[in-house]
């Protein structure tokens, strides 16, 4: 039973609307990817909460942009939702990607389903064990990346900008595991990876974690500092870390088309909130290393807006240069 505080007639009306209907949960990538796994994890629990059928539908194409374009113009009836990679979508809009035919600030947001921070990793036997040592080393840092606008590449670029490091970001690695191994071998000096990947790499003693690149500590690395605790960042460079934090903070966006009627939207949002708090879902996610963390729709929209709309013009210009690989 959805614990929604609203007129009983309206609540019953929305409950009746969903009865016997099918909600399509769209994933902008193929079967077996991270967002597909998350969606298939959540769908049966949401189905029980809503009292309807929830199916996962894969719509791969253009790195997820095809699915977002379709969602943007889909009927606003509350029967289509999507779990989307916010970082990818934010970069596409910020850089003016012609394949992105939407305005992220106009989507209907239901929640953020976790926004894991990234970590700065170095070789396991590196003499550099703290961020200040890395700054004082005055060396040219070789960062492993899977592409300029990949999470690995973006994290490296903005970390180097914030700390004024001399960096060379090397593209071509297949992903976090491949990049982490390059650091283990000494082929690369550093890598920026999501906390779950960092946890695996550090637990297996392949890498050492210098810091969480965020204002809050990683759940897996409570004994390691945040970048703000570990270094004194110049006032004119703090924006780079905060921009990266906002970009990464978009996380896993659970969204719907613009324009859903208010009563239905309130009902759907409450169903999502209730679902993401189900202990069995959270426990199942933890067993799969898929961490379920709920962030409310208003906070989600503010974070999205901070990336694609509210960034200062001079900072946006600098961010675009960093995203394009310029120094």
Detailed description of the structure:
The structure is a single chain. Strand 6 (140-144), helix 6 and strand 7 (166-170) form a beta-alpha-beta unit. It is built from 14 helices and eleven strands. The strands form three sheets. It has a six-stranded mixed β-sheet, with helices on both faces. It is α/β, with parallel strands linked by helices and 327 residues long. Helix 6 packs antiparallel against helix 10 and helix 10 (238-249) packs across helix 13. The protein has two domains: 8-115 and 250-315, 3-Layer(aba) Sandwich (D-Maltodextrin-Binding Protein, domain 2); 118-244, D-Maltodextrin-Binding Protein, domain 2 (3-Layer(aba) Sandwich), CATH 3.40.190. It starts with 7 loop residues before the first helix and ends with a helix.
Keywords:
327 residues, alpha/beta, D-Maltodextrin-Binding Protein, domain 2, 6-stranded mixed sheet, 3-stranded antiparallel sheet, 44% helix, globular
Element string (H = helix, E = strand): HEHEHEHEEHEHEHEHEHHEHHEHH
- Which class do the helix and strand fractions yield? alpha/beta
Largest sheet report: 6 strands, mixed
Q: How would you describe the shape?
A: globular
Give unreliable regions as ranges. none
- How many beta strands in the DSSP annotation? 11
What portion of the residues fall into strands of 2 or more residues? 15-25%
Helix coverage percent of residues? Answer: 40-55%
Rounded to an integer in angstroms, the radius of gyration calculated over CA atoms is 21 Å
Distance between the termini: 54 Å
Overall mean confidence score, pLDDT = 93
Total discrete domains:
2
